[in-house]
Amino acid sequence: MAVVKARNQDVALLARLLRAEAEGEGIRGMQLVGNVGINRIRANCSDFRGLRTIPQMVFQPHAFEATIHGFFYQSARDKEKRLARGSINGERYWPAKFSLWYFRPPANCPSTWYNQPFVSRYKKHCFYEPNSATCEHIYHTY
């Protein structure tokens, strides 16, 4: 059962994002990117207030390095589409289970990112969950 509405072109768009943002991090890394994206749609708080669709999330200004710096050109493959569908259907994995942010620092992960607490690192990406003052209902969305 989908936790956000998604047409076939939305699945392909999310799959392209997974590939562009985390192909080098393997299957789990791409799943984590999908989790963060779907969390942003469902959270409706902080910088993600008003996001309701996958295209709005993917193309939100300044949200993803891949769309900002031109890494978002490869087509979606079946593997990434399966991973995207999993995220759309509510599959979530730690450390992105409730995370709304991630980034790839040149060194160690900072203890906070935009005042949000560090959860954990997966390979080269650091993941951050919202604090309860920022987005308390993210922990109850699904």
Question: In a few lines, what is going on in this structure?
Answer:
The protein contains 6 helices and 4 strands. By secondary structure, it is an alpha+beta fold.
List the topology elements.
Elements (H helix, E strand, L loop, with lengths): L7 H15 L3 H18 L10 H5 L6 H4 L9 H11 L12 E3 L8 E2 L2 E7 L2 E4 L3 H4 L7
Question: Characteristics of this structure?
Answer:
142 residues; alpha+beta; 40% helix; globular
Q: What's the average pLDDT?
A: 92
Q: How many H/I helical runs?
A: 6
Distance between the ends: 11 Å
Biggest sheet strand line-up: 1-4-3-2
Overall outline: globular
Molecular structure report:
With 142 residues, the chain is α+β, with helices and mostly antiparallel strands. The chain contains six helices and four strands. Strands 1-4-3-2 form a four-stranded antiparallel beta sheet, covered by helices on one side. Strand 3 (116-122) and strand 4 (125-128) form a beta hairpin. Helix 1 crosses helix 2 (26-43). The radius of gyration is 14 Å and the shape is globular. The chain starts with 7 loop residues before the first helix and ends in a 7-residue tail after the last helix. The mean pLDDT is 92.
